[in-house]
């Protein structure tokens, strides 16, 4: 039986030699003075030799423990050398499959389908809030409590919506890892109830009784014509402000009297059609005289940006005295309220508002769904706004609806 003292006093010779311990364990002394642990065993009737490390990094007690573990594997019919190689590969894979590395890879793969600003924002938030806690961990070792700690820490800072978004992103990244066999389960898949319910923030929007005054204020606005046109078109098309200010002339179909917004500019990343009323077309034609030679309808004449910013509309609202009372998004709420009051089918209204459809298969066909009804609705709505601006109260009552083909 070997002792630590005997190992320390073992001197190198011209040729390598070994000193046996027990159970096939021995230490090999090399001519250069190296001391290497080896375990000799038989597997399927054949002699095998397993390296257990170098002395003194691996002590006598540690070498005996490794020998016993390897012997147990043999007893289970497993090849220790192959198991050791598999473990080495597994650890290498874990090093490559940390949460941070997979998250960055996933965001890069999603780059084509995501708005660049949105993608960059998500990456920045992960770098600040998620990676410091679980970024270096292999995805196979991250547990449900790990995810809960991350989400709750973000929430405790008072940013519940951010915590909710990070939880969703973490879940999507784990789903990506599961699909590729890099882990067996998604620890963020079902974490309902861990975040407090947040009351949904509604964008400022005026009550119906104050709409005539707003329309008159827009008509009398003495600021830039492009700001005035933007407010009018937000009212007539009820698209989101970001979708309006990024409008390009190539998106306007004059013959069909439609505005075709491509998927990459829509919030839900789906193409959208806006039927243009005669009033909206008239405004676009006026703008064409001003910016028709530029790619953007709302080209910025003051700055180096390609088109005007969201702030242009908000600033115009403030100058008219509607700060905190009305926003660009408020025109969408206004349109929904009036059109529902007028009796238009909710599906038609929701489709024109480009709200998400939970059925992803049907959503592929929704771009043109209800288009005849939407064309009539948009013209009716433009006529309502025109009448309201003239001081007529025509909100009550319903328009006759066309039967869907």
Write up what this structure looks like.
The chain contains 17 helices and 7 strands. The chain has 405 residues and is α+β, with helices and mostly antiparallel strands. It folds into 3 domains: 4-91, Integrase, DNA-binding domain (Double Stranded RNA Binding Domain), CATH 3.30.160; 99-179, DNA polymerase, domain 1, CATH 1.10.150.130; 208-389, hpI Integrase, Chain A, CATH 1.10.443. It has a 4-stranded antiparallel β-sheet with strand order 1-2-3-4, covered by helices on one side. The protein has a 3-stranded antiparallel β-sheet with strand order 5-6-7. A hairpin with a 4-residue loop joins strand 1 (17-20) and strand 2 (25-29). The longest helix has 20 residues, at 160-179.
Q: What's the layout of helices and strands?
A:
Blueprint: H1 4-9, E1 17-20, E2 25-29, E3 35-43, E4 46-54, H2 60-75, H3 80-96, H4 99-109, H5 116-129, H6 131-134, H7 144-156, H8 160-179, H9 211-219, H10 225-237, H11 241-245, E5 252-253, E6 258-261, E7 272-275, H12 278-291, H13 310-319, H14 330-341, H15 346-352, H16 360-363, H17 371-389
Antiparallel strand pairs: 1-2, 2-3, 3-4, 5-6, 6-7
Helix pairs in contact: 4-8, 7-8, 10-12
């Amino acid at each position: 039986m070997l002792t630590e003292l005997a190992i320390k006093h073992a001197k190198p010779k011209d040729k390598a030699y070994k000193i046996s311990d027990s159970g096939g364990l021995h230490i090999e002394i090399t001519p250069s003075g190296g001391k290497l642990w080896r375990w000799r065993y038989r597997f399927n009737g054949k002699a095998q030799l397993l390296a257990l490390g170098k002395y003194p990094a691996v002590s006598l007690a540690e070498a005996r423990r490794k020998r016993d573990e390897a012997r147990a594997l043999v007893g289970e019919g497993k090849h220790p050398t192959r198991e050791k190689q598999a473990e080495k590969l597994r650890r290498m894979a874990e090093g490559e499959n940390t949460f941070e590395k997979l998250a960055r890879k996933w965001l890069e793969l999603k780059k084509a389908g995501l708005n660049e600003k949105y993608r960059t924002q998500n990456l920045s938030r992960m770098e600040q809030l998620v990676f410091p806690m679980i970024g270096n961990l292999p995805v196979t070792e991250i547990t449900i409590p790990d995810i809960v700690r991350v989400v709750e820490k973000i929430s405790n800072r008072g940013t519940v919506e951010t915590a909710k978004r990070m939880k969703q992103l973490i879940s999507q990244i784990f789903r990506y890892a599961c699909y590729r066999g890099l882990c067996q389960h998604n620890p963020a898949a079902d974490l309902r109830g861990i975040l407090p319910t947040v009351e949904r923030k509604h964008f400022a929007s005026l009550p119906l009784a104050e709409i005539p005054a707003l329309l008159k204020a827009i008509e009398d606005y003495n600021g830039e014509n492009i700001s005035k046109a933007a407010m009018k078109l937000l009212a007539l098309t009820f698209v989101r402000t970001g979708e309006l200010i990024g409008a390009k002339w190539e998106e306007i179909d004059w013959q069909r009297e439609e505005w075709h917004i491509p998927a990459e500019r829509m919030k839900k990343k789906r193409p959208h059609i806006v039927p243009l009323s005669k009033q909206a077309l008239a405004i676009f034609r006026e703008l064409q005289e001003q910016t028709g030679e530029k790619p953007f309808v709302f080209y910025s004449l003051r700055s180096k940006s390609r088109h005007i910013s969201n702030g242009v509309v908000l600033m115009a609202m403030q100058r008219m005295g509607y700060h905190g009372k009305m926003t660009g998004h408020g025109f969408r709420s206004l349109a929904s309220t009036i059109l529902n009051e007028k009796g238009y089918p909710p599906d038609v209204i929701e489709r024109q508002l480009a709200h998400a459809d939970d059925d992803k298969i049907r959503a592929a066909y929704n771009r043109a769904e209800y288009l005849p009804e939407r064309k009539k609705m948009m013209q009716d709505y433009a006529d309502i706004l025109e009448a309201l601006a003239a001081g007529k109260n025509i909100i009550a009552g319903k328009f006759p609806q066309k039967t869907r083909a």
